[in-house]
């Protein structure tokens, strides 16, 4: 874990080295000042040597100024190192997330990833700055002050040693209690983020079903759980300061009482007593700093583990050793393919699939909810890997291809359509960043999107709100289809991606595909028979198994499931919008 995190310091190593160097110099300056104070009192004040007082005073000012300069420089380099470290962590996490397969993403919730990249990274940033500054300054200051105290008077310095040991035991006990609560807190942060994310993204549904009170209650429960854990942790940490102050004042009283007796006995000078009291404050303030560092580190340990999990997560799907960089055609072959979402799961969602699709063929796929239609097509572009058997595209196992090459040739319009904030052109060029305006227009014409784009005031420069909030479901689907077409793929997969489009527009899209991209293999998942009945062949899935595969006429004659769906959809006279309409 530490090695993983340390690897993100990178270009900030110089700042990370300079920070503790300046902190050490600052401590040395602070430790010298009590010597000057002692000399002023013993050699200047008591002996009435005003010139000595001036000389030592000037030395104190110079030392203090240099110590101040070192402190400022330490703060500057420490801030640069810690913020740079946090920047690199966020960048590394984000880049690694981009390599994740769907199975990797399933392992981490979206809310958890957001928490790890924000709250957890901020905790590590603060902890790293403390590590470079306080964690160097405090122990160094404590050791030097203790050494200097023992050189002045062993008996009085022993009071510090006892206080340090006692305080160390108490602080360790407090931190051990607090750390358990801090670890649990981050899981509560995940719950809160999940609640907020789900509520905001589905706010229209929440309001439509008047579920605001339910959502408030759900958020309150998560918030209350975090509050209780935070209070429990802070309650333990709150004992830190009283214990510290009790120890400080006890030491001051003990040293003052014993020191006064020693001064009377001429064993100790007034200047040495002042020096010991100053070192007393340095020692105990160093302990206080260390206690703060330990509390922060105890909080950040949980964050460090969570961030390291993301950084160390290896993508389940990676390029082979010598990848193939060309897909010859759009043929697809499933050879005894079975698939389960869990690596060790014996519960297969797809079971012994044998299927052969020729290049340029149009295949419709229908089946009930949960029949694994989406799971089947997700395997083709290696969004998931098969659990058993072999899946070939263009005559080669998909695991032989370079991932980018394969996914460029297999264009998928997923069931859940996503548009990004930006213009329509920006969104279309996700399919091909070099696409010209004419190529975008052509793709939109095939997807029947051009008709509504031209009606918009800014046309292709119309701004799309985040998630496509300012376009209808049907318009969003057609833009996503156009975006997929711009890749000019050898295989086009439409995963129920015309469900929000009226049947007339659906038919136009299918006719355009048949006429304009005849050499592209087209897989169309649909709930409507009308969307697939003109396909070359139709696949019927039932509970993850092939129940039927053939033409519309063959399935009507031989397949009970297909016939039942067809009759249920046509007995009412067809779709209400088959003569046209706008989604």
Describe the overall structure:
By secondary structure, this protein is α/β, with parallel strands linked by helices. It is built from 20 helices and twelve strands. Strands 6-9-10-3-11-12 form a six-stranded mixed β-sheet. Strand 11 (537-542) and strand 12 form a beta hairpin. The two termini are 52 Å apart.
Quick overview:
The protein has helices at residues 2-6, 13-45, 50-99, 102-107, 110-132, 134-152, 154-201, 203-208, 212-238, 240-264, 270-312, 373-378, 403-409, 424-428, 437-446, 450-453, 473-485, 503-516, 552-558, 560-570; strands at residues 332-339, 350-357, 362-367, 388-393, 396-397, 410-413, 422-423, 463-464, 491-495, 521-525, 537-542, 545-550.
- If you compute it from the alpha carbons, what radius of gyration comes out, rounded to the nearest whole angstrom? 35 Å
Chain-averaged pLDDT:
83
Number of helices: 20
List unreliable stretches of 5+ residues: 573-583
**How big a fraction of the residues is strand?**
5-15%
What percent of the residues sit in helical stretches (DSSP H or I)? 55-70%
Described by the principal axes of the CA atoms, the overall outline is elongated
Query: What structural class do the secondary elements suggest?
Result: alpha/beta
What is the CA–CA distance across the termini?
A: 52 Å
- State the total count of DSSP E strands: 12
The spatial strand order of the largest sheet comes to 6-9-10-3-11-12
Biggest sheet, in brief? 6 strands, mixed
């Amino acid at each position: 874990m530490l090695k993983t995190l340390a690897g993100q310091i990178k270009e900030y190593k110089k700042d990370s080295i300079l920070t503790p160097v300046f902190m050490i110099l600052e401590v040395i300056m602070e430790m010298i000042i009590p010597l000057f104070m002692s000399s002023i009192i013993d050699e200047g004040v008591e002996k009435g040597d005003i010139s000595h007082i001036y000389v030592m005073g000037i030395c104190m000012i110079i030392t203090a100024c240099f110590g101040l300069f070192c402190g400022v420089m330490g703060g500057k380099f420490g801030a640069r190192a810690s913020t740079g470290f946090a920047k690199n962590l966020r960048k590394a996490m984000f880049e690694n997330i981009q390599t994740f397969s769907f199975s990797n993403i399933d392992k981490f919730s979206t809310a958890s990833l957001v928490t790890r990249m924000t709250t957890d990274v901020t905790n590590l940033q603060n902890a790293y700055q403390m590590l470079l500054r306080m964690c160097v300054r405090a122990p160094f200051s404590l050791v030097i002050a203790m050494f200097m105290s023992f050189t002045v008077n062993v008996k009085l310095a022993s009071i510090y040693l006892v206080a340090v040991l006692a305080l160390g035991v108490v602080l360790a006990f407090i931190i051990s209690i607090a750390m358990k609560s801090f670890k649990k807190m981050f899981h509560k942060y995940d719950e809160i983020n999940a609640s907020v994310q789900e509520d905001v993204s589905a706010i229209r549904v929440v309001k439509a079903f008047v579920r605001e009170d339910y959502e408030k209650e759900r958020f309150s429960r998560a918030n209350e759980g975090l509050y209780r854990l935070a209070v429990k942790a802070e309650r333990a940490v709150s004992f830190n300061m009283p214990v510290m102050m009790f120890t400080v004042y006890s030491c001051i009283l003990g040293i003052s009482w014993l020191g006064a007796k020693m001064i009377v006995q001429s064993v100790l000078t007034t200047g040495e007593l002042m020096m010991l009291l100053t070192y007393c404050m340095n020692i105990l303030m160093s302990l206080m700093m260390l206690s703060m560092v330990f509390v922060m580190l105890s909080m950040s340990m949980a964050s460090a583990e969570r961030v390291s999990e993301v950084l160390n997560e290896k993508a389940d799907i990676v390029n082979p050793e010598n990848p193939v960089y060309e897909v010859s055609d759009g043929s697809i072959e499933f050879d005894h393919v079975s698939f389960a979402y869990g690596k060790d799961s014996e519960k297969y969602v797809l079971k012994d699939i044998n299927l052969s699709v020729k290049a340029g063929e149009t295949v419709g796929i229908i089946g009930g909810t949960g029949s694994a239609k989406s799971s089947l097509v997700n395997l083709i572009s290696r969004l998931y890997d098969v659990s058993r058997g072999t899946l070939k595209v263009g005559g080669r196992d998909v695991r032989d291809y370079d991932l980018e090459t394969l996914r460029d040739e297999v264009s998928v319009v997923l069931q859940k359509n996503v548009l990004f904030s930006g213009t329509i052109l920006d969104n279309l060029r996700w399919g091909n960043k070099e696409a010209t305006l004419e190529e975008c227009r052509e793709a939109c014409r095939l997807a029947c999107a051009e008709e509504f784009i031209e009606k918009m005031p800014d046309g292709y420069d119309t701004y799309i709100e985040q998630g496509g909030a300012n376009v209808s479901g049907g318009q969003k689907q057609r833009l996503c289809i156009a975006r997929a077409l711009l890749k000019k793929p050898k295989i086009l997969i439409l995963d129920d991606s015309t469900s929000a489009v009226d049947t007339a527009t659906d038919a136009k899209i299918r006719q355009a595909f048949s006429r304009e991209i005849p050499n592209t293999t087209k897989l169309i998942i649909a709930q409507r028979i009308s969307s697939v009945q003109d396909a070359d062949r139709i696949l019927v899935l039932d509970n993850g198994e092939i129940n039927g595969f053939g033409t519309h006429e063959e399935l009507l004659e031989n397949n009970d499931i297909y016939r039942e769906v067809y009759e249920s959809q046509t007995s009412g006279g067809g779709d209400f919008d088959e003569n046209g309409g706008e989604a």
